[in-house]
């Protein structure tokens, strides 16, 4: 019952005061004992020993806990504090500390995985670039061959710089933002700009892009970043929709929120993929032939979350996909 330190200390304190008072009344006033001072000293010592035991136990567990904490670094983040079974606040502290370690460990693993993925993603185009140049230089060739080699090299450098740009974008969106640089801006205007861009991007595939936006919606944040996030979704809609498909961009609002939806008549996303499409470097199982790095939606999601918004997806294989972005109004 009295397992918490707070109640134990409290009981000890109140108990001591009470016992002292009763003793003093009994010894001095009721029995009028001659060696009362002796009994009082005895009582005092007993209570002190009790108090000392309680405090000793607390500091012992605390010292143990702190020595364990000192030993944990980025090298052994998988260690946990196990042997505190005091069933009091100190055990609770150890438990919270272990939970903190769990979170740090996971974040650390994610970072390491990310670095490995980035390295892998940059390695392939670099290797292709290198071998293209090496092969071209091996012997004397016709102009047309050089041209071909240069064209291939150019496309690989495009790939490299696009991946790099995405990685930087992702790094930006996942670090806490300097809120002093954030501004209120007109989302309706941004959507109108994006519609124009989307229409240009979709011309080649003869995809029709239509838009309908409520007027004068303002949100707070970073206009260019939010634009990038929505553009990534538009880019996907165009990439994963076949010729002569349709894309519809709509923005509505409620009292507190703006909702942007981007709907396409494309190939759709399988249920298995839906769970992962927002993961870094995840590409749908049937996306190999389409240019991309699998970072677009991870970036979009990170940016939208940093604007206190959310993003949802609804899709049906062979019929199309709807992405919905919810953003709080200024
Ligand atoms: N509108 C869409 N229609 C069909 N599939 C989509 C759509 N948007 C995203 N996806 C799927 O989600 C995956 C992840 O998207 P993204 O992060 O933008 O990477 P990327 O486009 O570079 O492959 C894509 O590979 C694709 O399989
Ligand atoms: Mg994409």
UniProtKB/TrEMBL annotation:
<dbReference type="InterPro" id="IPR036890">
    <property type="entry name" value="HATPase_C_sf"/>
</dbReference>
<dbReference type="InterPro" id="IPR003661">
    <property type="entry name" value="HisK_dim/P_dom"/>
</dbReference>
<keyword id="KW-0597">Phosphoprotein</keyword>
<dbReference type="InterPro" id="IPR004358">
    <property type="entry name" value="Sig_transdc_His_kin-like_C"/>
</dbReference>
<dbReference type="Pfam" id="PF02518">
    <property type="entry name" value="HATPase_c"/>
</dbReference>
<protein>
    <recommendedName>
        <fullName>histidine kinase</fullName>
        <ecNumber>2.7.13.3</ecNumber>
    </recommendedName>
</protein>
<keyword id="KW-0808">Transferase</keyword>
<feature type="domain" description="Histidine kinase">
    <location>
        <begin position="117"/>
        <end position="330"/>
    </location>
</feature>
<dbReference type="InterPro" id="IPR036097">
    <property type="entry name" value="HisK_dim/P_sf"/>
</dbReference>
<keyword id="KW-0418">Kinase</keyword>
<keyword id="KW-0812">Transmembrane</keyword>
<keyword id="KW-1133">Transmembrane helix</keyword>
<keyword id="KW-0472">Membrane</keyword>
<feature type="transmembrane region" description="Helical">
    <location>
        <begin position="37"/>
        <end position="59"/>
    </location>
</feature>
<dbReference type="GO" id="GO:0005886">
    <property type="term" value="C:plasma membrane"/>
</dbReference>
<dbReference type="GO" id="GO:0000155">
    <property type="term" value="F:phosphorelay sensor kinase activity"/>
</dbReference>
<dbReference type="Pfam" id="PF00512">
    <property type="entry name" value="HisKA"/>
</dbReference>
<dbReference type="Pfam" id="PF00672">
    <property type="entry name" value="HAMP"/>
</dbReference>
<dbReference type="InterPro" id="IPR003660">
    <property type="entry name" value="HAMP_dom"/>
</dbReference>
<feature type="transmembrane region" description="Helical">
    <location>
        <begin position="9"/>
        <end position="31"/>
    </location>
</feature>
<feature type="domain" description="HAMP">
    <location>
        <begin position="56"/>
        <end position="109"/>
    </location>
</feature>
<keyword id="KW-0902">Two-component regulatory system</keyword>
<dbReference type="InterPro" id="IPR003594">
    <property type="entry name" value="HATPase_dom"/>
</dbReference>
<dbReference type="InterPro" id="IPR005467">
    <property type="entry name" value="His_kinase_dom"/>
</dbReference>
<dbReference type="InterPro" id="IPR050428">
    <property type="entry name" value="TCS_sensor_his_kinase"/>
</dbReference>
């Amino acid at each position: 019952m009295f397992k918490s330190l707070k109640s134990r200390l409290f009981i000890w304190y109140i108990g001591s005061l009470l016992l002292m008072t009763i003793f003093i009344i009994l010894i001095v006033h009721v029995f009028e004992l001659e060696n009362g001072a002796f009994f009082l000293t005895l009582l005092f010592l007993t209570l002190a020993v009790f108090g000392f035991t309680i405090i000793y136990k607390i500091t012992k567990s605390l010292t143990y806990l702190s020595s364990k904490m000192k030993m944990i670094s980025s090298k052994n983040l998988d260690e946990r504090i196990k042997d505190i079974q005091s069933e009091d606040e100190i055990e609770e502290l150890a438990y919270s500390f272990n939970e903190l370690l769990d979170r740090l460990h996971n974040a650390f693993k994610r970072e390491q995985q990310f670095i490995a993925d980035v390295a892998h993603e940059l390695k392939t185009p670099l290797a292709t670039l290198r071998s293209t140049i090496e092969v071209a230089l091996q012997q004397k060739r016709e102009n047309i061959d050089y041209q071909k080699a240069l064209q291939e090299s150019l496309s690989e450098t495009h790939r490299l710089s696009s991946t790099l740009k995405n990685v930087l974008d992702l790094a930006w969106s996942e670090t806490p933002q300097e809120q002093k640089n954030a501004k209120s801006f007109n989302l309706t205007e941004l959507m109108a700009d994006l519609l124009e861009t989307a229409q240009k991007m979709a011309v080649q595939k003869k995809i029709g892009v239509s838009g309908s936006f409520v007027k004068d919606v303002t949100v707070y944040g970073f206009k260019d970043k939010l634009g990038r996030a929505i553009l990534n979704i538009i880019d996907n809609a165009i990439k994963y929709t076949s010729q002569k498909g349709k894309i519809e961009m709509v923005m509505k609002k409620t009292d507190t929120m703006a909702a942007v939806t981007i709907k396409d008549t494309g190939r759709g996303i399988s249920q298995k993929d839906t769970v992962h499409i927002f993961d870094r470097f995840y590409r749908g199982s049937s996306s190999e032939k389409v240019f991309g790095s699998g970072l677009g939606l991870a970036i979009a999601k990170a940016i939208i979350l940093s604007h206190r918004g959310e993003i949802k997806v609804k899709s049906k294989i062979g019929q199309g996909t709807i992405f919905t972005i919810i953003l709080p109004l200024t």
